[in-house]
Amino acid sequence: MQQSQPSELYQAWDALGEPEQLRLLERVQILHSAEDIHATGTRLQGRAAIAVGRQYATSFLERLEGWFFQRVIAQMGTSAGPVTGIEFDEAFSSRRDQFRPDNLPIDDDVIKLPDESHLHSDKTFVRQLGLAGIGSARVRIAVRDWLRASTQRDRWSNENLLRPGEIDIYERRLTEEWEVRFEAMRDDLGEQAAEEAMAAAAKALYRWVEQEARYSIRPGCEEPFVTTGSFHLLAEGLDVGWHPQYAARLMTLLEPAGSHS
Q1: 60 and 68 Cβ atoms separated by less than 8 Å
Q2: Average pLDDT by consecutive 10-residue portion of the chain (261 residues)?
Q3: Torsion angle in degrees (nearest 10) through CA of 222, 224, 226, 231
Q4: Is 74:68 a contact under the CB 8 Å cutoff?
Q5: SS3 call for 143
Q6: Helix or strand or coil: residue 260?
Q7: Could you tell me the sign of the dihedral formed by the alpha carbons of 241, 242, 245, 249, in that order?
Q8: Burial tier of 14 (Cβ tally within 10 Å: 0-12, 13-18, 19+)
Q9: For the chain, what is the total number of helices (H) and then of strands (E)?
C-alpha cells in the first residue's frame, strides 16, 4: 500500500472541520511508556518461539503479521469490523498448526496468484497436456496449480521448513504411483494402438491426476495443488507423462533446430 507524504497528511487534517478533528482525537489512545518497535519485535519473537519453536519463529511471525496487516486494511476500508480477541486467536491457532511436525504452511498469497497461463504456453508440461488432447480451460487450471506448487515449494525450501531429502522422497512416491498406472495403460493399449486410442488413454491417466491423485507431502498438508502441481513439475522434466509415447514425441519437438545436420 502506497504511503502518504507528510504534506498530504497535513492537508487531509486541515481539510477536516473542527468537529471531525475532535472526534478523531477522542478515538486516539496513547500507551504510556510502551516499548519501542525493536523491543516489541524481540518480545514477539520470543512468543512465537514458544508457539512453534525457535527455528520457525520468523516464518510464523511473517505469516501472522501478513494476516494482521490485511485485516487492518480491511477495517480501515470499512469492509470489516474491529479485530476481536476471538478472531485473532483463531488466526493465531490456524497458523501455528501449519508449523506442526505433520504439516506445512499454505500461504494466502500463493493461493491468490494471478492467472498467468498465457505466459507459459511453451512449457514442456503444457506440451504434454497438448499431446493428451486436454482442453484450454483445464490447461489453465494446470498452469495455476504448477505455479502455486513451484512457488510454495520454493518458499518452504528458502525458509528451511523442509526436512533433508523430503521433496525427493515425495517426488519418488508420485513417480512410482504414476509408473504403475502408466505401464498398465501401455499394456492395455499394446504395440499397435491407434492414435485415437492412445489419446483417450492419456486423457484417462491425466484425469486420475486431476481428480484422484491426492498424496500429501505431510499428513496435515492436504492442499490438492501440492500434488497436482508437483506432477506438472515432474512432467516439465519428462519424469512423468500422459501420452504413451510422450518421451519420444517431446524429445523430437524439443531438439534444437539443425541438430540432425
Answers
A1: no
A2: 66 89 87 74 87 93 91 78 89 95 96 90 96 96 97 97 98 98 97 94 98 97 97 98 95 62 45
A3: 130
A4: no
A5: helix
A6: coil
A7: negative
A8: exposed
A9: 12, 0
